[in-house]
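Before a colleague's protein record goes any further, I have to sign it off. Thanks in advance; the entry in question is below:
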Amino acid sequence: MTGASGTPETRRILRSLGADGPRGLPAEGYVLASGRAPGLPGAQVVLAGADAPGTYYAAQTFRQLLAPRGGGDGRPVLPAVTVRDWPSTSWRGVIEGFYGDPWTHRDRLRQLDFHGERKMNTYVYAPKDDPYHREKWREPYPADTLGELRALRERATARHVDFVFTVSPGQDVCYSSPGDQAALRAKAASLWKAGVRTFGLFFDDIGRELHCADDERRFGDDADPLAAAQAHLLNSFRTDFLEPREGAGRLLTVPTEYSGTDSSGYRERFAELVHDDVVLYWTGPEVVSPEITAADAEAAAGVFRHDLILWDNFPVNDYLPRQLFLGPLTGRSPELPRHGIAGITANPMPQSEPSKIALATVADYAWNPAGYDAERSWRAALRDIGGSAHRALEAFAGNSRSSDLDRTESPRLAALIADFWTEHRAGRNGPATAALIDAFTAMRDARDTLVRDMGNPRFTAQAKPWLTKLHHYGAAGAAATEALAAETAAGTDGGGTVSWSRWRTADREAARARETYETVATGVLRRFLTDAGLARRTVTATAPGRAEAGSDVALRADVRAGDTPVAKVEFHAGSRKLGEDATAPYRLTWDSAPTGLHLVTARAVAADGGAVRSAAARLTVGDPEPVLLLVGRDAPVPEGEELSAGDAAVRDRLEHLGHPVRVLRGEDAASGDARGKAAVVISSTLSSGAVRQKFTDAAVPVLVWEAYLFDDLGMAGDPGETFRASRLRISDPGSPLAAGLDGEVAVYRGPDRVRWGTPGPEAEVAAVTADGDSRPALFGYRAGDRMAEGTAPAARVALFLGDEAVDPDVVTERGLDLFDAAVRWALR
């Protein structure tokens, strides 16, 4: 190993191997040459860097090139090779900038080791939920925390990573205050003593107001007061703190308008006033940018007129915490470094170890965008991180792959499912059936294999809920496929004993999967289980498609349970049990069936208590008015689906409650669409701006959970939402809206979003937030009640739900009870 000038011996070896030395390479570049040189004994290896980081990176490439020798002795072998390599970007790394629990000290130490291995040279400390980074930015760090930051800086230096310390004072700083400026310098000075040399002042995710009278006087007449105030603080910190200190790095900042490519008054003044040496962060055309083109970068560089680093909000999942983003970085032009982007730092997930899969691909892109191959990089990361358990890791990561960058989820599983259905519909059990069972089995076994063989207990601990979900879904998928295969093999008798047993397993494992709040194989696995349930023939229910209102309706069930003794068959319409029959042929007459859409199912119960339920037979009685469900685009829609998981769940639940549903994109809706409807239900996937007051005067019940429509509809003032909440407190147990519940109830299986508002004086408030603020989160009005504004023309209900609404993987049974009660209350 040697530096740029080398030694006479290394220069001679390089010449013998036909390789040039590192002289003339850019910073951080290196040469790695290996082989047998003429006249020299044995194999020769030279690692030579243009500088110390370059030599270090040569060692990392040397490690990556080592591979187990064939023949089984396990010793590594190094190919004869010459590598002459250097980075295309100056900043390459990670910005810990997510909302939620920050990484632990141990997480960060392990990440810094990983950064070095992957040739990343930057770690930016900016955790949103570190109070000393934001809310308590004026206060010094406690001594023990400062000691940890010093240790992180030391580890970073040892791995040739620049530890960047940042503060986000924008929530309450007085930009012109000498006292606040002194507080910033004092905080930075404590980190300077710990060895930090690069600093950042961030102004992201704040309002546009100034916080003190001095700022109003000093900047209030500027073309953009906020830009002028922030530029003043940045320039003062640079002049007063950084310039006098030898070895200080360039100052980094995040402008308040940090995404997009359009010019604005703020951006023009910010670019004009901030010192040219300050480096700006930019997140791309959007906050989370599916694609960033060279034209996007060129436009942003022209607007901001400073060196830009891409703050890539990938694989961060703080806005969708139920999902892990374990796929590769995609959608980034290889030309970004040529169009004003000096580097890339990725914002990771709170789950530090699972983040490494995506971060490894970010590192590959950042080093060599022109040569980046997302799929190849991803598979290499799985092999490197998974080790001997890499196939199990692929079974896991391949089913947690989709993100806003690429919505394609579980591509291999989806292809296997498609092949299976082709084979199944042809009445055959063949290689496609076997391949799908194998894939589901690998998913089922991935958790235990990774725990046993991966050698990374922190990874499996941080990924535990997702691995558990995958385990149960894999077991359910394998059992459902085996049940369908048994039905196919048995022909018209439905598969008998085997299919009965496998359907019981499939239903049990699917129910266990739903108990886990987190999600895997989004839009793929649940869809397969739904389709498999619709195709099952072991138990079937038959009902006429239509019947007159109030007529008697004949229902039938067929059970093909083989040797399994069946004790009875229950008939249900939605949640309502209609009756049962204990002897075959199983029949029931539903007397005076009411108007509505009824989903009729048969539940066959064996002598041992085990049960298998049929798919639903749709029965429309009379001419029921449909419910109008208005949906939008503010939640991801799985590939191949028309609705988000939450909107699909609302549609299905309304049908379960007996209501036909008409779905309409809210931006296309008009006030007249409410006529002839039983109710209007407005999803929060529809932005308030797309609806506004279209249905304020609707003479039919309206149910809504988009908080910022509460005021447009006159239902409440001061609307808002609480994040990372899972419980409500029943404030009026006697209200029908309370569904018979009392006390605190868990409405979500994990931390989610609760919406609320301040209703009018005659509102019936059934539940409030469970925090100390007790904000009304479930309330309604009868026709004629005084609302916050105006009088209710028909029933109105405001619900607490988030964008995933009544998705059964998200909402608890108690949460579902409250939704059902709200629908019944509004439509009674």
